[in-house]
Amino acid sequence: MVKLLAALVTATTVVATTNFRQQQFKVCNSDKDCNSGFYCLPTWDGTFAMCQPGNPPAQRNFVCTDHADYYGDDLSNTHTGYQGCVYNCRINPDCNAIAWVQDANGQQGMCYYKHLKDINRQPTSDSRAIKTCKDTPDAPKKVKWVADAGYQVKGDDISTKSNVASVEACESACEATPSCIAVSYIKNSQSCTLKKTADNYYPVWSKAVDLGAVAAFSHTYSACYSNYDYYNQGDVTNFQGSFQDCKKCFDKGGNAFTWYLGPITGMAQPVNPQGTCYCKKVTPPTPIPATITPNAYGGTVFCFQ
């Protein structure tokens, strides 16, 4: 029995070591190509990159143009591959642009690190085998909303407003309120409760009147849909968490998630204080639609990264 257990432990260790090495030496173009706990690091000559264990440097958004250059404003230069050139600028806070001139033969070239005084200036065309890149921070993402009719948000309140004519007006009030991320709206009483946490959601109903209850959650993902799911498709892992916690799925190898209130009681109320995030790796449609036909129930929320 002891020998059998030892053999199983050895086999498990071998598989784990093999998986680690396969991930460690996986060829990559960006950190997104690597699993959680790894980042994309160029080789010593800068000609290509492989996933390596560790925490990645701060993300920067380099927008690149072929056959162009940002003349002047040079900091220094070195001879390396293109990926090494971009990476070295990425980890240098004084560098906000590069120009890389490829050698006549080979995968290396001269890399010119730059600090553009006018970050808004455009590159100048250049007929050489040259690529130039500029750190261009992403514009703030537009806040979007996903709404679940028949539900209310479980989470910490900021305030409750009266005489709010619609859920859209309630969402606008949330956007204008610091730390607000979700709302509970009741059309029957025109009440709008602003929430600073969205731990879970729960169904509400009345036999006497139509409450017009809506739970709505703000997000900046490509798209989110209520009562929709990629059921049993591309599941990576799952964990209990708030709607905001589900973004951790993107650090766990997923590119989408499903958030569900369950498990539930016989009265369809959630058992746990927080919902469940189901992380998924799926192939999204092209283009990703703004709306989609529901295929699930229970207020399930599905989001593409």
From TrEMBL:
Pfam families noted in UniProt: PAN_1, PAN_4
Signal sequence extent: 1-16
The UniProt record lists the keyword Signal: yes
SUPFAM superfamilies: Hairpin loop containing domain-like (SSF57414)
Record keywords: Signal
Annotated PROSITE patterns: PAN (PS50948)
Domain Apple span(s) in chain numbering: 133-221
Protein name: Secreted protein
Protein source organism: Thraustotheca clavata
